[in-house]
């Protein structure tokens, strides 16, 4: 080989080596990147999450303002539990209670207390209110105060509360008593504790001795009334 030929061969070899060397690193790097992304589950999951969030964002943008407001209004906050209603069975306590009012059931309860127990002590009046509300809570009786109070009305002396079927007109003449009993009715309907009669659903004055009282457990004696609970099966 001549010197000239050897020089040409060396230059050609160097040139080829330089050309391959210039592309070897990027090709390897490109192969590494392709391999890592196609086999990395985090990369694939991230792409899916991004696509999902983009879709949700576009959907929310498409909603009208009124629709969003309606959706937000449908989520009502959970009401905070109310503190228990505290009562004291005295006239002084009732004197400090604000004037009461209410709907039909409040009026029915106030009327029942007026005609059934306005001559009783305050404690006795609360006890009669307990009986009426205990009946409302029982599946054996109607489920509203007015329905409980008027049960059997129309059949003389065969109703549940005598004043509703004794043939006499119900006339409110003692306004102060009505206002006081209205407060009791309101307190009881608002959740005052029923702790006086131990779940009683019946009562009668001590001046009488009804036959059913022999079979019913007596739970309390308050003022001029005895109180009873229905026999349990």
UniProtKB/TrEMBL annotation:
Record's keyword annotation contains Signal: yes
Keyword annotations from UniProtKB, A to Z: Signal
GO molecular function, one term: hydrolase activity
Domain (Cell wall hydrolase SleB): residue spans on this chain: 119-228
UniProt xrefs under Gene3D superfamilies: Cell wall hydrolase SleB, domain 1
Protein name: Spore cortex-lytic enzyme
Keyword Signal in annotation: yes
């Amino acid at each position: 080989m001549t010197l000239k030929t050897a020089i040409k061969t060396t230059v050609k070899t160097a040139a080829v080596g330089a050309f391959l060397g210039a592309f070897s690193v990027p090709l390897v790097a490109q192969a590494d990147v392709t391999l890592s992304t196609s086999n990395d589950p985090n990369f694939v999951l991230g792409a899916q999450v991004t696509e999902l969030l983009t879709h949700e964002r576009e959907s929310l943008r498409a909603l009208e303002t009124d629709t969003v407001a309606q959706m937000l209004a449908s989520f009502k906050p959970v009401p905070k539990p109310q503190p228990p209603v505290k009562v004291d069975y005295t006239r002084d306590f009732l004197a400090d209670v604000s004037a009461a009012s209410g709907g039909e059931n409040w009026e029915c309860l106030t009327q029942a207390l007026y005609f059934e127990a306005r001559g009783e002590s305050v404690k006795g009046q609360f006890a009669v209110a307990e009986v009426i509300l205990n009946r409302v809570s029982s599946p054996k009786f109607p489920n509203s105060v007015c329905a409980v109070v008027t049960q059997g009305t129309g059949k003389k002396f065969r109703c549940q509360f005598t004043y509703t079927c004794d043939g006499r007109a119900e006339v409110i003449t003692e306004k102060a008593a009505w206002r006081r009993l209205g407060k009791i009715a309101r307190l009881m309907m608002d959740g005052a504790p029923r702790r006086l009669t131990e779940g009683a659903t019946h009562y009668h004055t001590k001046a009488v001795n009804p036959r059913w009282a022999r079979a019913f457990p007596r739970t309390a004696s308050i003022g001029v009334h005895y109180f009873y609970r229905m026999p349990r099966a």
